[in-house]
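User:
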Amino acid sequence: MVRMMRGLRLLALALVACASACTPGAPGAVTNSLQAGTIVIHLGLTRYGATNTQYGVVSGYSQNPLTVASGAVIQFENDDDFGHTATFLSTTGFPAEGPPVSAETPSGTDVTQPGWSTGELVGGAISRAFRATTPGVYFYGCFHHYSLNPPMRGVIIVQ
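Assistant: Predicted structure:
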């Protein structure tokens, strides 16, 4: 009887874990693997220096600015050995203030929707996949390094 109860308890825990991991619309976790056909944006504070663009100074991400077709899938890969985020800022330009503290938690699934963030990506980590569904210009930045000179920020153009 004890074995049967233990087995039922393990089955119940497995079902709860599976159900919570499969909730539609729930943010995925850091994957450490690239999805086939994905477009990769690399994060590197010193590797990807400042560039003057029509959108302002961008730095710390490569390809930057990045132009993709609507429907593209994007993932972020941290090339540094310390943490970064890539977090939605606006559709109108770079704000004076960087991302909020909530940027450290993964959120959203579409880089064209406000509020998305990779969450904290430790050195070498790869984010979950994000879609780019709506044409427009999208400004994003790193929670930890937005206030540096140059600030760690980027632009995604969806066509």
